[in-house]
Write a structure and sequence with these properties.
- It is a single chain.
- By secondary structure, the chain is an alpha/beta fold.
- It has 11 helices and 14 strands.
- The protein has a 6-stranded antiparallel β-sheet with strand order 6-7-3-4-5-8.
- Strand 13, helix 9 and strand 14 form a beta-alpha-beta unit.
- The model has no long low-confidence stretch (mean pLDDT 96).
- Bound molecules: NADP nicotinamide-adenine-dinucleotide phosphate (NAP).
- NADP nicotinamide-adenine-dinucleotide phosphate (NAP) binds next to helix 1, helix 5 and strand 10.
Length: 354
């Protein structure tokens, strides 16, 4: 008997490096604004990398919204399972934001081999969960302090989506927490000049602390770095770092109370204001506190373009308003280097997020 000739496996379709081949609804959308993605990781595309997911780091605004809506950390786990089942990605329908993930590479498509990872490598995504095809079969634990969930799941990384290998000298959870906000510090370096007076709203959180650390360097000894933070224990921790000239406890949703709390620090307004809060309604505090022709960097995902732009117009404040891009070239390495060179800040990150 002669054996049947073996047929070659069908060639893998390439898939679009931008990920449009995974968009289910609405047709023609890009993956981030799309309502629903195809999250079936068994469907192989040559430009993709498939990851067995261990940890989700949920965006701070999204985590806070899910915690308030569900009333408990377990409730957040339930919301994540619901969202992923409905949308094929962790794209919070209320805040519009995602987060990022840590996992182990399970498969590398033929056209992704040049990306420098192999099956078994551990990586963190640097593209938002709001555009990453994801399935989650179990939530093992939920940690509110770090907005991280230990899960079992699978994710797909598109050909154009950035990711980072896990550094050897950081705990995974700390590194992922840092990567979540990695765009903040390098952009602070671009915006703050020597001698600038800088205000950070949400100064005690992850991105607020990183912006402050970078602002301290960029502004130099002639500059001034001031923080505003609503959570008193975080304000104390921020003060103890020695990065700030002053930190006040204030609610950035109340611009008048904030200006009172700042007192003489406000002066003619700050040269640069960073908005790093995880709540809605802080746009006007930033706009009120910036000087004419100053800069406001809205890193917060809770920022409303309309409230910021119309609010500035409404009070005749001619300032440059920046949207905080989550991506800056080399941002993961930049942020790791910053944390390595700030031992007190690193210790705080390890205590809080590790
Ligand atoms: P985080 O660690 O939770 O820090 C936010 C800080 O703001 C917390 O200390 C929080 O205090 C404080 N805060 C809350 N409400 C406040 C108020 N009314 N006035 C003053 N301070 C207030 O958050 P994160 O991870 O740094 O993220 C900060 C923001 O950046 C979030 O909106 C997140 O969605 C966004 N983000 C943007 C990007 C991007 O690409 N642009 C990427 C990642 C994250 P509590 O402890 O009381 O909450």
């Amino acid at each position: 008997m002669t054996a049947e000739p073996q047929s070659a496996p069908p060639p893998q379709p390439a898939g679009d490096p931008l990920g449009t081949h995974r968009v289910l609804e609405p047709r023609g959308a890009m993956p981030q604004p799309a309502w629903k993605l195809d999250n079936d990781a068994d469907r192989a595309y040559a430009t993709e990398i498939v990851v067995d997911v261990e940890l989700l780091n949920i965006d701070a605004a999204s985590f806070r919204q899910m915690l308030e809506a569900s009333g408990s950390p377990e409730g957040v786990g339930g919301k994540v399972l619901e969202t992923v089942a409905e949308r094929g990605k962790q794209h919070n329908p209320v805040t519009g934001s995602g987060g990022m993930l840590l996992g182990r590479v399970a498969r590398v498509g033929a056209l992704a081999e040049g990306r420098g990872v192999r099956p078994g490598d551990r990586i963190a995504t640097l593209a938002s969960l709001s555009l990453t095809p994801l399935s989650v079969s179990a939530v093992r634990s939920v940690r509110p302090t770090s907005a991280q969930l230990e899960v079992e799941g699978r994710a797909v990384i598109f050909g154009s989506a950035p990711f980072a290998r896990m550094p050897d000298d950081f705990d995974d959870k700390v590194a992922v927490a840092l990567f979540d906000v990695a765009g903040a510090a390098p952009q602070a370096a671009r915006l703050v000049a020597s001698g600038d007076r800088v205000l950070v709203l949400g100064a005690g959180g992850k991105s607020g602390l990183l912006c402050a650390a970078q602002a301290r360097r960029s502004a130099g000894p002639a500059g001034r770095v001031v923080g505003a933070e609503s959570h008193a224990p975080y304000a104390d921790e921020a003060r103890a770092l020695g990065l700030f000239d002053a930190v006040c406890v204030a609610d950035a949703r109340d611009p008048l109370a904030l200006t009172r709390a700042l007192g003489d620090e406000l002066g003619p307004g700050f040269d640069v204001v960073f908005s790093c809060v995880n709540v809605e309604g802080a746009e006007m505090a930033a706009v009120v506190c910036v000087r004419p022709r100053g800069k406001v960097y809205f890193f917060a995902m809770t920022t409303s373009f309309a409230r910021a732009a119309l609010g500035a117009e409404g009070i005749g404040k001619d300032a440059d308003l920046y949207i905080g891009n989550g991506y800056a070239e080399g941002h993961a390495d930049f942020s790791l280097a910053l944390l390595r060179s700030e031992p007190k800040l690193r210790a705080l990150f390890e205590r809080r997020y590790g």
